[in-house]
Every structure is written in structure tokens, then in C-alpha cells.
Design goal:
Keywords: Transferase. It comes from Mikania micrantha. It holds the Pfam family UDPGT. Belongs to the UDP-glycosyltransferase family. GO terms for molecular function: quercetin 3-O-glucosyltransferase activity; quercetin 7-O-glucosyltransferase activity. There is one protein chain. The protein is α/β, with parallel strands linked by helices and 548 residues long. It folds into three domains: 239 residues, Rossmann fold (3-Layer(aba) Sandwich); 87 residues, no CATH class; 159 residues, Rossmann fold, CATH 3.40.50.2000. The protein has 24 helices and 15 strands. The strands form three sheets. The chain has a seven-stranded parallel β-sheet with strand order 3-2-1-4-5-8-9, sandwiched between helices. Helix 16 crosses helix 21 and helix 21 packs across helix 22. The chain is globular.
Amino acid sequence: MVTTDPSLRSATRRRIILFPTPFQGHINPMLQLANILHTHGFQITIIHAKFNAPNPSNHPHFSFKPINDGFAEIADQLATNQDATYFRKYLNKSCEDPFRDCLAGLLAEPGQDPVACLITDAAFYFAQAVADELKLPRMVLRTSNLGCVLAYDWKNRSGSEWNLGSSQYSRSSSEMQWLPRHYEPFFEVSSASPSYRWKINKRCRRWLKTLICRRIGSTFPDSDYEASVPEFPLVKFKDIAKITTNPHGMGEFVTNMFTQMRASSGIIWNTFKELEESDLETISKDFPVPSFTLGPFHEYFPATSSSLIEQDRTILSWLDKQAPKSVVYVSFGSGARITESEFQEVAHGLSNINFPFVWVVRPGTVAGSEWLESLPENFVEGMGERGRIVKWSPQHEVLAHPATGCFWTHNGWNSTLESICEGVPMICSPCYADQPINARNVSDVWKIGVFLEDGFERTGIEMAIKRVMMDKEGEEIRERISCLKEKVKLSLDEGSSHAKGDLKDIQVRERILSLIPGSEPMCGKDLPIPGVPAHLVWSRHISARWAC
């Protein structure tokens, strides 16, 4: 864990204002980033929505400013509507005026250290206009990996429809009405000439074909849906299709978010260079502002103090009694929901294996149930001492425990990073958003886990667990993820052949200080940073002076 240098606090004497989106997977990284910046001498103020508000008592060294988020007006929809895009767009509208008023008030406070910059979650795209209006530099935190952003950006530019739903195609009339506004004239394929069909953009052809076939009752070959994306050969079309139930809204949301990311003063990523080095160069071209790979954040500050759900720590003593690498850890994150039948398939899959397990079942995980009502009859009695079911866990400690043998995960980016950093192989059951792309990277690119391609089905679950825990394939997976774990260690170790762990912090600190009019970096030497490519330090249109 990083410790604060008191000399930096007196030297910096600047404030940073941060604004996270109110979802567990976004709040954790923002508060971890705040802690990292605090160790470099910055005072920290967190503006936050009242929905899923962080607990100020867990962060006594920060100041917290709640704003009205408008969620009280849509409380009924929160309980039934699972479209995350809808809520993110709603937040961008409902928070704009309260955020502007709060930020203006903070800037006008007398007797406070000057504000160096604003850092917001990339999803709050409205914040760029507010920052420009108040003449305050804005940097963004992107909580997903680089490859996901590149895939989203390609999908948005290609004009592809934003939803074909997992393995089942949506037949919503609203989607069909939306399509003609985004494609060439839309009509039955039987009336289109071969020459006209050939002119359709190659990137969109598979998607258009799917929708045309739906209208005329033709079939759509599974091979097309399973095909690789030309620009990302190791990512399948179905991975970037499983995004949202609101295709038009998602396209609009991503366009706004990426436009304002490109207008920002810099992008901070919760990833590390050794994991996504090939994508860094592409990111620097597609998003020509300074990029900083500062992760993994949890290696600096664990997420324990920023958890919105109380953790059950009793499982740690239970883990102490288990054999090394024998436990299957199951958790599908803070936002995923599954059906009752899927929940029961998970239960049967765990019941039929001979491995001990920890199963995190967050209240509300199962649609229509409060908690465990949908478990198969006598499941808990049959489980006995072989398993534990909890509402929430201290995940970082569970993954770091020597008894943990594999992680069955939804592949949220935070969970994926934590598993990599602890060298724990993964079984992948992604749900939405960036998760399918993260899972494809885990299974097909980095080859550190297996993908449950057929969803929640007990036989497939048993086979996947055996592949990871018993087969030679599992041994090879464990070796590869152990190598990645070592790369993380090397990237963080001071004095290694890689970039120093604290050097990345210094880059961000110096970038923030450089945004202040008339300011100079804390060490005014015109020296390059050894081992750091120039495009990762500054973009071509910004001059740089860096600390050595």
C-alpha cells in the first residue's frame, strides 16, 4: 500500500475534485485513485450522487459533497428497469445543474487551496462542458480496459446496431423502427440487387443481414454470429453485441462519452502497460490526449473501505481450513442479475462437483427473489461444511488466500484485474457491457481461464470447473496467469527493469500540476522518463517537463 509523503502535501497545496458514477464497480476505482492522489499531497473533495453514496467515515481525510441526483423521482423504475444505459443517460441530465452549482461553490470557497483539476468518471460526459464553462481542466477516469474502449469505438464508428442480445435476438419493434435512420434504405433482401448488397459497408453486413433475415423469416447462420471482428480477430461479434436493451440510447451514450474523453486534459486507466501494451499505441492515436495506465489501483489501496455492501469476513476462517488451491470462488459482481432457472443451474453445478466452494449471492441477484428462496430443495443441507453462501465477501482477501483455486466470475474489469494480480484462474460468465470482451480476453487472448459459452447449464459448469481444477489445461492456465501475476509485481516494484511503481503516480501528479496556469512541475528538469514511451508521457501537441 502507498504511504503519504508529508513533504509532498506542503509542496503541492492543491485540491482535486473527483466525481464518480454511483455504481460499485465505478465508485471503488475512483476512491482508490483519490487515495493515490492524496499520497502525493493533493487535498481531495468528492462530489457524489445521493444514490449509492460512499460512506464518508471510511475516508476521514477526504471531504464529501452530495448533490441531488433525481433518482427519487424514478425509484419505481430503479426496481424494475435493468438497462444501465438508461440510468447513465438519466444521470447526465439530472446531475448537470446540481453538479454545476456545487462545483462553482467549491471554486468560490474562501481560504481553501486552489483547485488543480476535476477528475470525473468518463460516463459523466456532461461534465466537460461544465468544466469548460468554469475554466477548470478536466481529466477522466476510465474504469474498463483499453481493448473494450477500442471495440466500443469501432462499433460506434462502423454504424453497427448496438444490440443483438446474447444468444437470443431481440425482436423489439422500437429497434426495427430505429434502424432505417442509421442504414441505407431498409427492405427485404429478396428485392435487393447483388450489386447493391455488395456496397453495404463490410463492417455492418453481418448485422444488417441478421435483421433482414428476422423480417423475412430466413435463418441467420450461427457461424456469422460466432465470427471474429475483422479489426479485433480474437473478439467475436457476439461479444460486442451483448451490451444493452436500448440500442439507440447506447450508441448515443458512447458517442457523447468518447467525444468528451477526446476533449479532456487526459485519461487515467485502471490497467497496466504489460497487460495491454499492444492497445496502448492504438489508444494514443484514437484518443490523442495524454493517457496514464496507473493500475491496478487495488494494489495501491484495497477496495474494502469503499464497499457499498457489508462484507462477510467469517469465510476467511473457513478458508483457513481448506486445502491449498481447492476452493471454487463464485461471485457475479455488484450489478448482474440472473433468472431463477439460471440460479438453480448454478446450484446444481456446484452441488455435483467434489470441490469446496464459496458462493456470493448478493440480495437481488435472482430476478423475483430477495435472496436464497430459489435454491433447489435441500441444497443447503446437502452442502454441509463443503460450501459457504454469503451476501458479500472481502473479495481481494479471498482471491489472495492460498486455498482459492479458481474464480467463477462475471468478468467485471475490477474483478478480472484482482484475479490476475493474485494468479487465480477464471471461469467466465459475463453478463453485459464490457464483461463479454473482458471474458474473451481471459479465455482466448491471455488464455488464463475458460469461457462458459453455453451460459448457465449444470453439465457445462461441471466440465468447466474440472477443466480448470483437474485437467492439464488447468495447469497450463495456472502457469500463464502466474506469469501475468509476476508481470504485475515487476511493474509495481521500485527499481525493476520496468517502469517504477511510483513513477506512474508522478506522471499523473505532474500532469495535474501542469494544468494550473503559470505553474511549473515540482522538479523542473527537462529529462525523459526511462522506459516510458513518449506517447504515454504527452501527446504531440503538449510540451512536457517532467520530474526525474
